[in-house]
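<backbone_tokenisation>
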Amino acid sequence: MNKTLIASVIATLLTSNAAIASEETVELRKVITQQQEVLKSLEQRLNETEKKLEATADQVEVVTESTGGMFANTTIGGYGELHYNNYEDQDAKIDFHRFVLFFGHEFSDSIRFFSEFELEHSIAGEGKSGEVELEQAYVEVDINEATSSKVGLFLIPVGIINETHEPPTFYGVERNGVEKNIIPATWWEAGLSFNYKPVGGVSLDGAVTSGLEVGDDFKIRNGRQKVAKATAENLAYTGRVKYTAITGLELAATVQYQTDITQGGNNFDAPIDTADATLLEAHAVYQVNDFTVRALYARWDINGDEAKALGRDEQTGWYLEPSYRISEKVGVFARYAEYDNNAGNSDSTTVESTNVGVSYFLHEDVVLKADYEDLGGSIDSKGFNLGFGYQF
């Protein structure tokens, strides 16, 4: 092969390779251009997505400020109880006795609101058994570390169950007759109160509130006005001292004085003498491990000839209740009580009540209850009660 032929072949190969390389370069550029367009499209979509995320974040922030910020310190709770009562001298009854909702809000570390809204007996209205009630609605203010004040509608500081009466907190399906008929729980008024804790374990309460307005029967429980356009000619003055410095022990005593428990005799056909009234209540709660005993005494003294003529110038009651928590799930109790809304009468009108029962806790805040009650004295009856209750 001569040199000329070899040179010609080499030139041809170089020309061919250059053409191929040129074609590959064109194709590569096309691919790169396409990829660049894809990247631009992805970049645009990414920018759009970022903008949407920023907008969503702004919306979440607005919602948080308008809802979470406003309600972050708001609490909701409540309790309820269903009862079945079967006594030998009356028809058996089943009743969703109470459905209650709590609403509270902390305005600041020192100012808070609390309320309790209740429906009794399942349905309310004209001709119905139930009632819709506002049992609490007050603002509490911490004046300093030892002193606070309430203003509004609140429970009177008296007895064991008047301020704490959720079903899992007491034994027995129904609330005891002494606190119900003598104190009378649940009892709320409107006004102003102060709480002062001078030392650890000692608490002093004082309140100036609306008062009772008894009818011509002078029965204490019927005198609750429930702050429903309540007559307030004569206010009530309440004081309580409570001692809890010893672990497991609570001692407390309450005094209330009302200048006229008839509010000027407005419920009577003719004006009557002023009937000033004084309530004295004292109780003790002592718990040792799983054993607890509760004891309470309450007495009303009412001045006036009308109350004395009915034998209702004195109205008294007391009870003793030991209980034992067998396990985390099961607790048992017994209670003996006496109360008399006619204690000033020469005839025996005392009601005697003996209760025994059991509570089964599905949860610490959910309870099933059963008890047997033997009523004696001025009432002769026996029966049993079944109940279900909860709190949250």
Q: What stands out?
A: DSSP finds three helices and 16 strands in the chain. Residues 3-71 form the longest helix (69 residues). Residues 22 and 183 are 106 Å apart (CA to CA).
